[in-house]
Each structure stands twice: as structure tokens, then as C-alpha cells.
Amino acid sequence: MESLIKSQHAQQKQAGHSGKTPGTEIIPATTGLTMSSDESMMLKLIQQTHSPDAREVQVRGLLSLVEDILDRATLDSDDSNASMLPLPTDDKLMQSSMMSVLDCVSYAIDRVACEIAYKSLTGSDAHEITMSVFEHLSSFHWDGKLVLTLAAFALNYGEFWLLVQFYSKNQLAKSLAMLKLVPVQNRVTLESVSHGLNDLIREMKSVTACVVELSELPGRYITLDDPQLSRIISTIPIAVYWTIRSIVACISQINMITAMGHEMMNTQMDSWETSMLANKLKNIHDHLAETLRLCYRHIEKERSRESLKMLHSLFDTTHIDNMKILTALIHPKNHIMPLQDGLTKRKVHLDVLRRKTVLLLISDLNILQDELSIFEQIYTESRSSLLGVDGKSHMPYEVVWVPIVDPIEDYERSPNLQKKFEALRAPMPWYTVDSPKLVERYVVEFMRERWHFMNKPILVVLDPQGNEASLNALHMIWIWGTEAFPFTRAREEELWRRETFTLNLIVDGIDAVIFNWINPENYIFLYGGDDLDWIRRFTMAAKATAKDSNVKLEMAYVGKRNHSHREQFRRISEAVRAENLSHSWAEPALMWFFWARLESMLYSKIQLGKSDDHDEVMQGIKKILSYDKLGGWALLSKGAEIVMITHGVIERTVTVYDRTWKTHVPTKGYTKAMYDHHHDEVLRETGHPCAHFDFHITARSGRIPEKMNCFECHRPMEKYISFACCHDEKLLDQDENYNF
């Protein structure tokens, strides 16, 4: 594949980019190296020397060898550190691979080394020597010129330090050092060489590595259509120039020491030039590194876009089983066992899910414990009910938790998030993806696009062939549990045909105590709110009316929909039980489940496209959810039959019992007398409150209706967008809501 820098030379010979349509901007206009006027003129001179041919140099392998030499030669004054550097893992393999590379370029390396050494000794100007190097290497690409010149420096510098290190150990090294006038016995001079050049050599290597990386960028994703990128790449010759210029300075310094020999014994190296060049290269490296970062980000986006497109295509294709789909979602390369079995806590292969219905529980790490608790209870009961005579569960489906951390870098940097993940999955009895890192970024994007995942939990159902049976079956699970299997739209419609709006539907599967109250002789009040004084007045007055009317009345406090104020409702619930005001749940999870089921019924009806004006369930649920926004509310039933749902003024209705509707109870009955007075007298005075609904932004996936009619006046409701911030358990969550 043609590299970016090589394609740049070809484009420079063309008439320009005027006939091409610019692509997506990769590099912001503020990024890049700023050239002085002198450098602009110098760039033209450098480009005149540049005439690359078709030869290819394996610069990456050669650069690795050169870096190894410089890492071992650029040492502190304590040369024993050389033995502490890691050796190449396979010396024979390295030699074999490098021989073919060096056969092609060894002449060029030797020629450049001799050219710089000779001209620096004859007093030639550094710029003149640098331009001479460009002339000698005119047939190589920019990355080749730079790596070959750095290799020439490694020959010179590596030999210098090799003689220093072996001077006291090897007679040959000692004799050669004396012949070349290497000041091996002058520690001051050696330290001056090492400390004086270390910073500059480090920057030379860094800039070279960046230039090589830029040359390796795939032209498939990175092109010079982007004007800013084209401008930055056009400055690569300047980066190469200053790096070669720095190499010339280093070789000149070494040659000066060896040429003057013992005359240099008591002098320090002049650090001004090396310091200036090191700062220059650092500035160049910072710009190139930022360019690389932006290019890699762009490449990742492009590759993600391709993978995302392929994933969509995969889901639109028919398969014989679900393995291709599951592998694409949660089986990155080289990860053979991406799942953990929740029961055995062992890692397992995706094959355990082959040709099974798979429920993907997708969530971030802020999933509510209440939600997990109820889901686990439903899952465990289902598993227990399907135990065979062999003691094994014969569940027709499997659950897999897919944890999402976006961006994944947050997870990699945060031990707290890692601990949180482990704490969440530890009690889960179902399969879990072994790490959030196994869910690729484009898979998360796919889930957001196709399944409308927005961090709140969703339950995507894939049938045994990998087809999407449901984009979110959580609402079916909350309403009917595993009876909703196989969680298809047809099954959902079938289950709704069996249902009527009764108290059985409202409390089914939540609380056996309330469910056991349901018989034709019992009157039942479900009520909610966050005003304890209102609760006291309402419950005491309601119980007094029942006692006086000689009817059996049961009452249950169900809290409020806003579970973010969990601690407040826990205190109210404790007070209700302590003062014997009514029945109330000790487990906050049950309160959460009650409201989750009501919301799920509403969402289910909306997704099925039911007309809310004529749907009894929709009308009833809308009343409860709307009145809950106002404060206190109550639902009255006789047995399973729901008599009325009303807001907080019900407290006034039961309070005036003795003065008003008490006399009608013997003739009309308890519920009829209460209902008539409430609607004919109390509501006539107080009026009907505004209807109000909140749909969380995460309910976008087909659950937010385009329009909604008021359940009181049946006129179209107005639509708003609001923001809410709830602070519970020291967690701050910003929620966006659609309000009607």
C-alpha cells in the first residue's frame, strides 16, 4: 500500500488539488509546524535534491537496529548500565532479517558516514554538510534519508562507546582506542560527551520514529485531500533537515574530541549548539506526534465506520445459527473464551450459546441494584421451575450481561471502575462478558444506532439464528416475567389480549400480601406520595370511613415513581409501618419494581401502536403516572375491579365523610357513595389538575409517542424537553426528559 509521505511526492508533481473535492478534515487548522521565511527558502532547496526512485528500504527494521545501538551507546557516566539493557530476543533471527536489508543500503550508510566525518574534520559548514547528505541520498524517500543518516551516526557513535566500554577488558579495544585518540581515561570528557549529547540523540530518535510512522500510515484512510494534513506533510523535509543537521553536529563533536585527543582532556563540551538543536527537534517532534495522534484517531473512526457497516450488514443477513452474530459482538480476535459462567465463575467459549435464544442485558456500570435484584429473582425462579429430573436446568434461553464503558479508556485508567465491574458481576448467575474491553467501540456505536442504547439497561433478544426478536424485552420481563418467552412482538400482543385493567395486573408478581387481599368483599387503597403529613391524614381518615361503614379496607403505600429519592421513600415507608398507617414494602427494590412495571406497560402499549384514547390500560396507567407527578394520589378497588384513580384531593373526600357522603353509603354502597361525592362535589370545586408525563431520553427507541392526548379532556397535550438532576447516594446523574 502506498504510504502517505511517498504519495505526497507524487502529488507535488501534479498541478495541485484544485480539481479534487476536499475530504473530511483530519487535522485542525491550528495543528502543524510553523516555518520561518528562511526555512521556507530552505525547503525549496531541499526539495530540489529530492528525486526518489522505485527502490524500497525496510526502514522499520533498520531503525530498530539503530535504536538498539544508540540505546546502548548513549549512557550515563557509569558505563556498567550498558549490561542492564535488554538483549534482542532472537539474535540469529535479527541478523538474518537485517542482512537482506543491509545488503541494499550498506554502501549508502558508509558513504554518508564518511562524508559527514570527512567534511566535519575539514571545517565545512554544518548546513553545507547537511545539504551534501541530501544530494547523496536523493534517490531515497524522506523516511529512508533520515534512517540511513541516523544509521551512519550509529556507526560512528557506537564505535566510540564500544571502545570505551571494552578498553579495560580487551587489549584489541585498548589499542584501537589509543590509535583513534578516544579519551577513555578522562572521565570528565566522557561524561561531557554522554550528558551533552543524550538529550539531542533522544530527540533525533523521536523525530525519526515519527517520520517513519507517518510514512507507514495507510493511504486507504489517510489522504492528502485534507489541506491541513497536506500542509503538515509538506514540512516533513524540514523535520528531516534539522534531524540530519543535528546528526552532523553530534558527529562533529565526537570527531573533534578524537581529533584533538589529549588536548581536550580538561575541557567541557560546548552545550549551546546541542541544546538549541534539542529544543528545535523537540518542537518538531511535538507537532509530528500531535499529527500522528489525530491521524490515528481518524483511522480508528474510519475503521470503526467500516466495521459498523459490516455489522449492520451481518444483522441483515440470514444465518444458520447465531455464532457469526455473537462473535461479531463479543468475541474480539485472540480472545478464545470471552464469557464467564455466572454459576461456576469459569471462562467459557461462545459455543455455550450456539443455537439458543440469547438475551443480551446491555448496560453501563451504573445499573441499579434494585433492577439487578428483581431481574435476578425472575431469572432464578425461571431456572428453578425448569429443572429436569437430571437436576439440570432446561432453560430455552440464556442471559449475557454486556457491560459498556464508553469511552473504554476511562475503564483502563480507573481502578475504581474495574472494581465496580467485578462487584457487579460477582453475584450474577448468568453469563457475563469477561471485560468491558472486549466490547469494541464500533459495537457500542452499533448498539446506540440500531438498538437505541443510551446507557440505561436494555434487553436485546436474539433468536437461535441470531435474528433480533426484540430490541428491548425488559418491559415484557417486568410485566410478565419469563412467561413472555420468546419475547417477540406476536407474543407481546397475545399476552395483552388476555389482560384487562384490574388490580391483578397492577400488583401481579410483586407482593403476595396485596395479591391475597383481592377478593370481592375487600376494598383496597393503593396510594403514593412524599408528604408524610398528607399520608397520615389520608390513611387515618380512610380507615375511619371504612370502620364506620362496616367494610373491610386494606391499604398499601407504594412510594413514588422518582426512585432517585430512594432514601426519602425508605424513611417514609419505615414511618408508615412504624405508625401502623398501612402496609408498606420494607424492600426498596419492590417499590422500584412497582413503578418499573407501570412504565413498562405504558411503553409496551406505545410500541405496539395502541390508540390510548380507547385503551383502558393506557388510560389507567397514564392517570397513575400523571397524578404521581403532582404529589399524593390513590387507587381504590373493590376486589380486582378498579373503582377510581385520583390525585391528592382524595384526602379531602375521606376527611368530610361524616358531613357529606356518609348518609349515602347504606343506599349506594361504600365505593359508589365515595365516588359520586368525589367527582360531583370535590372535583367540581378543586378542578382537574394538569396532566403531566415524563419520558426519559433513553426511552427513544419507539417508546416516546409523537403525540399524546390528555386522559381528562382528551385534547392533544403540549410537548416539552426538560433537564433534571437527581442526587442520590452521593451520585450525580443528569437526566434529559421529554415532557407532555
Question: In terms of quaternary structure, what is this?
Answer: single chain
Low-confidence stretches: 12-23, 76-84, 264-269, 727-735
How much of the sequence is in beta strands?
5-15%
Overall SS class: alpha/beta
Shape label: elongated
End-to-end separation: 56 Å
How do the strands of the widest beta sheet line up side by side? Answer: 2-1-5-4-3-6-7
Pfam family, one: SEO_N
Protein name: Protein SIEVE ELEMENT OCCLUSION B-like
Q: Would you give an account of this structure?
A:
- This is Protein SIEVE ELEMENT OCCLUSION B-like.
- There is one protein chain.
- With 740 residues, the chain is of the alpha/beta class.
- The chain starts with a helix and ends with a strand.
- Residues 12-23, 76-84, 264-269 and 727-735 have low confidence and may be disordered.
Keywords:
seven-stranded mixed sheet, SEO_C, 27 helices, alpha/beta, 740 residues, 53% helix, single chain, Protein SIEVE ELEMENT OCCLUSION B-like, five-stranded mixed sheet
List the helices and strands and how they pair.
Elements: H1 4-12, H2 37-48, H3 59-73, H4 91-121, H5 126-136, H6 142-166, H7 171-179, H8 187-216, H9 227-234, H10 236-260, H11 272-315, H12 323-330, E1 339-340, E2 347-348, E3 357-363, H13 369-385, E4 397-403, H14 408-413, H15 415-425, E5 431-433, H16 441-450, E6 458-462, E7 468-470, H17 474-480, H18 489-498, H19 503-507, H20 512-517, E8 522-528, H21 532-549, E9 552-557, H22 566-578, E10 583-584, H23 588-607, H24 616-630, E11 633-638, E12 641-647, H25 650-655, H26 665-668, H27 670-686, E13 694-696, E14 720-728, E15 731-739
Parallel strand pairs: 3-4, 4-5, 8-9, 9-10
Antiparallel strand pairs: 1-2, 1-5, 3-6, 6-7, 8-11, 11-12, 13-15, 14-15
Helix pairs in contact: 3-6, 3-8, 4-5, 4-6, 4-10, 5-10, 6-7, 6-8, 6-10, 8-10, 8-11, 10-11, 11-16, 13-23, 17-23, 23-24
